[in-house]
Write a structure and sequence with these properties.
- It is built from seven helices and 14 strands.
- With 257 residues, it is of the alpha/beta class.
- The protein folds into two domains: 97 residues, Beta Barrel (Elongation Factor Tu (Ef-tu), domain 3); 140 residues, Nucleotide-binding domain of ferredoxin-NADP reductase (FNR) module (Rossmann fold, 3-Layer(aba) Sandwich), CATH 3.40.50.80.
- The chain binds flavin-adenine dinucleotide.
- Flavin-adenine dinucleotide binds next to strand 4, strand 5 and helix 2.
């Protein structure tokens, strides 16, 4: 393990039902990462340290300029890190190691970039927003695909909706696995559906064939639920001719300790 950093909790806030956002301040501005990477939190638990990974949901610029870092945590019933984190108070400190992970945009991506995330698996793409905006300006075609159970579980929705509204070559899809609605309750307000995003009923895997991806000129990112990632990766490789390298993955596997 490389160096560790002592972070201080600035605040925690509800992002959606059972999803909490945490904002930490970093000890100095030397902590550097690439959008898409994750950190490992060292959770003190009954005389032991539990290591739990969380994707960085904020941009590298926020870390460099303001010394701040955000994560989003889907609360797990009886989950130890879930309990420890939600019991933290502003000013409390927490040790972190990292950054880790290869779910990062290539320097020269192919023409089309497809970013698929289930639940908090959307977080790394939020960290990429400034880069995505730059790529969109250069005419790359970008699809952000969010897989979520119901509208009350949506978060970071506004930011992706705005990106899609700004660029006709960016498409934002939301796949609801349980419930679909013509109104969305986001950030305390009902939003009516507009042209900026497309909603679907079903799992993200069922949307992929509809995107008509050309494996010659596309890279796909898959993040979140391990079962979704296995299924989607197999589908892309077996049915759509993608190579292993063209499908980047970050599985949110459960910890065994
Ligand atoms: C690379 C990586 C990145 C990750 N990024 C994120 C992230 O950005 N946000 C995030 O919320 N999580 C993320 N995770 C998952 C996270 O690391 C923890 O596993 C999760 O928060 C549960 O930890 P816990 O200590 O609260 O639960 P534990 O105490 O480890 O688990 C308690 C019980 O709940 C079960 N359980 C644990 N997780 C789930 C689940 N998701 N669904 C159903 N049952 C479960 C366990 O099997 C166990 O029985 C990531 C994991 C990896 C490997």
């Amino acid at each position: 393990m490389g160096p560790t950093y002592q972070m201080t909790l600035v605040e925690q806030y509800e992002l959606a039902e059972n999803v909490v956002g945490f904002r930490f301040s970093l000890p100095d501005k030397n902590f550097q990462f690439i959008a898409g990477q994750f950190i490992s939190l060292q959770i003190p638990w009954q005389q032991r340290i539990l290591k739990r990974s969380y994707s960085i949901a904020s941009t590298p610029v926020l870390a460099q300029h303001q010394g701040l870092l955000e994560i989003s945590v889907a609360l797990v019933e009886g989950g130890r890190a879930s309990q420890y984190l939600t019991n933290m108070q502003p000013g409390d400190q927490l040790e972190m190691a990292g950054p880790y992970g290869r779910l990062i945009l290539p320097e020269q991506p192919p023409k089309r970039i497809v970013l698929v995330g289930t639940g908090t698996g959307i977080a790394p793409y939020r960290a990429m927003l400034p880069e995505l905006r730059q790529l969109a300006q250069q005419a790359y075609q970008i699809d952000v695909v969010m897989g979520i159970r119901t509208p009350v579980h949506l978060f970071y929705h506004q930011e992706f909706t705005e990106l899609a509204a700004e660029f006709s070559n960016v498409h934002y899809w939301v796949c609801f696995s349980r419930e679909i609605s013509d109104q969305l309750f986001v950030d305390g307000e009902y939003l009516h559906l507009n042209d900026c995003y497309n909603q679907k009923k079903g799992y993200v895997q069922t949307l992929l064939p509809e995107l008509k991806l050309n494996s010659e000129e596309t890279i796909v990112f898959l993040c979140g639920n391990p079962a979704m990632i296995d299924e989607a990766a197999t589908q892309l490789q077996v049915k759509e001719g993608f190579s292993v390298k063209q499908v980047r993955r970050e599985k949110y596997v459960l910890s065994t300790n």
